[in-house]
Amino acid sequence: MRKALRLARQLPTVPYPNPWVGCVIVRDGRVVGKGFHHGAGTIHAEVEALLDAGPRAQGADLYVTLEPCCHYGRTPPCTEAILQAGIRKVVYAIDDPNPRVAGKSARLLRKRGLAVEGGCCSQEAADLNEMYLKFQTTGMPYVTAKVATSLDGKIATRTGDSKWITDEEARRRARLLRAEHQAVLVGINTVLSDDPHMGPRESGKGEPWRIILDSRLRIPLGSQVINSGKCIVACTALASTTKKARLERAGVRVMSFRGSSVPLKSLLKHLAREEIISLMVEGGGEVLGSFFDARLVDRVYWFLSPVILGSSLSRSAVAGRGAARLAQACWLQDSSIERVGNSWLVQARVPSLPAKSSGAALKSGRA
User: What's the predicted TM-score (pTM) here?
Assistant: First the structure.
């Protein structure tokens, strides 16, 4: 199973909205077939492994990191391919929470006489697909907050100077983190002050959607995010309809909301319906503060640079309303730290709050 988990990450770009899946077929103690999922519309890991094994799959055991699918999406069901190949036993790591699967495949295979076991290396498999699992169980994208600050928690000096707090190695790592998400989000003030590229700038890495919070559509038509060809601007009824039309002619997707500010939960639900299941929020401080205040962040990547900026006028990384008492603060869990360039990278998980499913889960599942 651990070999299958390693195979699942063979793909150089993210397979979202589909999950990472790896598969290994074993016969008489030897691996006779291997496969991994290459993205939406391509054959699934199980089918690739079965093709690799050929006739050796007859009477073999199949190990896969996620419960096989049993429905028609963009590809036929993997359960049919498993049955036709003559597999005798299926071992999978975790159930697929997609309602079109959700235990149905395991029951179907058992009914057809196969031995089926679940739960092997389940924690590793869940960690691998935490974004997909969150989306399927809540109907909301997985949200990562990425921050780069001085040791005293500042993202810019009192005059607004921010380039660069971290060195090139740390910034390169941050760009690689972008490539692990379908979309990157910033506020309009970041665009106006920095004109950021917001892409990975690495060959072979997928280009994320650039999402800009811009209530009044102040974004310049010549900005890099618009020229990227993958830009979504979220605005409100206060925005100019003329500017909206000009942006749409430039290839920008404009999402408009009622009120005077973009409602973050509504925006995330809209993105989920567009099959965007992972989102990295990069700032600025008010934007990050709004996401933390709304308890919409799932994971934090925080780059700490060995510099002190000082001044109460320097820009803080996380603004917003914040906590009135320590008990209300966002206490992180499962934290780790590593050295990256001249900085330290702190990774941590934000504890999830109990919530009802929004019912907006991806209909097609693995497709």
Answer: 0.86
